[in-house]
Amino acid sequence: MSRAIELREVSKRYGDTYAVRRVSLTVEPGEFLVLLGPSGCGKSTVLRMIAGLEDITEGELLLGGEPASDVLPRERDIAMVFQSFALYPSMTTRENIAFPLRLRDPSTDHDDEVRTTARMLAIEDLLERLPAQMSGGERQRVAMGRAISRRPSVFLLDEPLSSLDAKLRGHLRAEIARIVAELGVTTVYVTHDQAEAMSLGDRVAVMRDGVLQQASPPRELYARPANVFVAAFVGTPRINLLEGVVHAPLDGPMALDLGRQRLCLPQPLTTDHQLLRIQQGRPVIVGLRPEAVRIGPPSQARPGEAAIGGIVEHVEYLGHEVLVHLNTGSRRAVVPDLESSRPAVDAGPARPARRPWIDRALHRVNSVVVSRSSAPGPAQQPAAVPPERRTTAAGDLVLRSGPEHRVRVGGHVPLLVDLERLYVFDHTGLRICPAPDRMPALHT
Question: Rounded CA gap, 22 and 12, in Å?
């Protein structure tokens, strides 16, 4: 029978260093929860605390509504699959799968249970093989079989597919989803691969630096990220994150300065966009998913779309789609733990700070866009982002397009931005547009 897992303000500290800090999370009976985050964020530590392999420094763990922080690991009715397979090398597949059953009841013949588990995992023909005689994918199936055979109430998986090749990972991912659904067992799965997380989990809990950032169903996590870290970590290709400044005059339309161009918000303002007024003059981070930008002239703009322009830096042809990398004169926002900021250095004579043709081309594109938009003011130069901080010619925007669009590197491209899919985060990284689920307190 599946059991609920509840973490109440759980922390793990090594000396003065916190590996996990005040995590509160509930996993319902039969739910498949994925812990997602970069390496070293504390997700495996959370898993090991649930299993009893790590002591809880602060807080409380409940299993099935009963306190379990001090319960011995063998008494928690939990099975765990490790990244390294952890099979007994001198035992056959049959013996590895039967091992936990023999520990529980050494006097009973468990062959029927072993065969049932092997049939579920399609490894019946491997029952007499040793681990050294099997491939990585086969050994991982055996490791899963050993965990499944005892029919635990909680199933824990710690990056079980990370050491396998991409094709095998995709196949076993589907197998894991099928098996867990068939068993109906409460499952916590740890991974740093967001594709695994989004395809497997009923809910995905994103962690960063030992702190839980958000726990939501995959669709909600993608559509309404709680902060800029979650937005950047979930989604392929990654969300475009640009430095911006809110321009909200009392006598004109509101706009977001993006360096050399502006996104003018349509009138009348939506409720989400109205909340941006309190950010007047403040630096923000503007987020645009690749599918929120399309190629098209201002004359083809739909209601709620704003026109900007860009220069093609690189084109990735992927068959069913094309990823177009553009330079719009904006500056990419840096998200700690996903990338490191690059300090300004003297590039030397081999490479100037910006290629002259980029500046000339952007000036021409901006002139066309400004003349056809309702942006206030005679110029599109923002005051908040100085020229020395603007991006180099590496490109700052990626859009997803169909293969019918043929663009060339160096070409000028008119762009239309769907403002209904616009994300804005404040200087601390919290989402302010679309409106957060809980409105922040306003401090005077």
Answer: 8
